[in-house]
Design a protein that fits this description.
Oligomer: single chain
CATH class of the largest domain: Alpha Beta
GO molecular function, one term: DNA binding
Distance between the termini: 49 Å
Strand order of the largest sheet: 7-3-10-9-8
CATH architecture of the largest domain: 2-Layer Sandwich
Radius of gyration: 25 Å
Number of strands: 10
GO biological process, one term: negative regulation of DNA-templated transcription
Number of helices: 13
Protein name: Heat-inducible transcription repressor HrcA
InterPro entries: GAF-like_dom_sf, HrcA, HrcA_C, WH-like_DNA-bd_sf, WH_DNA-bd_sf, WHTH_transcript_rep_HrcA_IDD
Strand content: 15-25%
Function: Negative regulator of class I heat shock genes (grpE-dnaK-dnaJ and groELS operons). Prevents heat-shock induction of these operons.
Shape: elongated
């Protein structure tokens, strides 16, 4: 199949207008657009039969599809991509949306996680979609690590950072842990932790375990490995991926396949397996990126679209991302400036707070 640029060059002015009107109608209503509807709105007065011929040509090019329940057309994923790349008109950020986003950040509190939680809630409210906010890792050097047994199937890892920040994370320890193995695991980690961040520790810990395997009791070895998994995927209070507004995706009545798509999306969000990949989506450069359907490797099975933008710290290093996920018929022209502005404001807030 030819690429979008080549297809666009094959289209004359009439074809482009018909295509644009079909996509815009679909994004507005979620349903197929018929030739009779288009014949009343096109700038050029042409018959419905002529428009049907044009739509058939666009279907042949892979840009439109004809649902079996209607004579109208809807855009394909390829068609939506071409529309977003070449015909999308991005509007200015509406003052009301700006005020709602600004209100969440008008806070001198040092509780960054609280601010980001409010930002995520506001973003879902403004866009009527599900919002995703990937929070930055705490990258201060670690001063001390301790494991505390809470029950036979629950333990606590306490992380004390050099800047005074403390994180307590509950996890399920490997079977058979004893106070002795917990002390041994903590002693091993504290011997190598000095001056290292969590990211540093995650890269070095495997090498240290391999080099000093004889020194480490098996139970302590298992506990260290289990604790590492906890650090990479923290408990509820410290989740790096904040998800808000999932109920917005259920507000509109949909077909059975739409409900199943949303259920699959919810399952993906609950698992949160691909937090690192979520950030990788933004690493090709700053600014907003749009992923449609299967282009979105995180949620491809759900057939959803993701509008995402990274945010940066004062050193222009990407430390997190904000995004909105919803059906492929998102109002891209309105959501793009909202996501862009939110990402810029989050970066500024975090930079101001060091």
């Amino acid at each position: 199949m030819t690429d979008s640029a080549g297809i666009f060059e094959q289209m004359n002015e009439r074809s482009r207008e018909v295509f644009r009107r079909v996509v815009e109608g679909y994004l507005e209503t979620g349903g197929p657009v018929g030739s009779r509807t288009l014949s009343r709105t096109l700038s050029e007065k042409v018959s419905a039969a002529t428009i049907r011929n044009v739509m058939q040509d666009l279907e042949y090019l892979g840009l439109l599809d004809s649902p079996h329940i209607s004579a109208g057309r809807v855009p394909t994923q390829q068609g939506l991509r071409m529309f977003v790349d070449g015909l999308l008109e991005v509007g200015d950020l509406e003052s009301g949306d700006r005020q709602k986003i600004d209100a969440t950040m008008d806070d001198n509190s040092s509780d960054v996680s609280g601010i980001l939680d409010r930002v995520s809630t506001a973003l879902s409210g403004v866009t009527h979609g599900a919002s995703l906010v990937l929070t930055p890792k705490h990258e201060a050097p670690i001063r001390h690590i301790e494991f505390v047994s809470l029950a036979h199937d629950r333990a606590l890892v306490v992380l004390v950072f050099g800047d005074g920040h403390v994180e307590n994370r509950v996890f399920v320890p490997p079977v058979g842990q004893t106070p002795s193995s917990m002390r041994e695991a903590a002693n091993f980690l504290n011997a190598i932790v000095s001056g290292r961040t969590l990211t540093d520790l995650q890269t070095v810990i495997g090498k240290e375990i391999a080099a000093r395997r004889q020194e480490i009791d098996r139970l302590a070895h298992d506990l260290i490995a289990s604790g590492l998994a906890v650090w990479e995927n923290a408990g509820d209070r410290n989740e790096r991926l904040i998800v808000r507004g999932r109920s917005n995706l259920l507000d509109t009545e949909g077909r059975d396949e739409d409900v199943e798509r949303i259920r699959t999306l919810f399952d993906d969000l609950e698992r949160k397996r691909d937090i690192a990949e979520f950030l990788e989506l933004t690493e090709d450069g700053e600014g907003v990126r749009i992923f449609i359907g299967s282009e979105n490797k995180l949620f491809s099975l759900s057939g959803s679209s993701l509008v995402v933008s990274p945010y940066m710290n004062a050193d222009r290093k990407i430390i997190g991302a904000v995004g909105v996920i919803g059906p492929t018929r998102l109002n891209y022209g309105r959501i793009v400036p909202i996501v862009d502005y939110t990402a810029q404001m989050v970066g500024k807030i975090l930079s101001d707070r060091g």
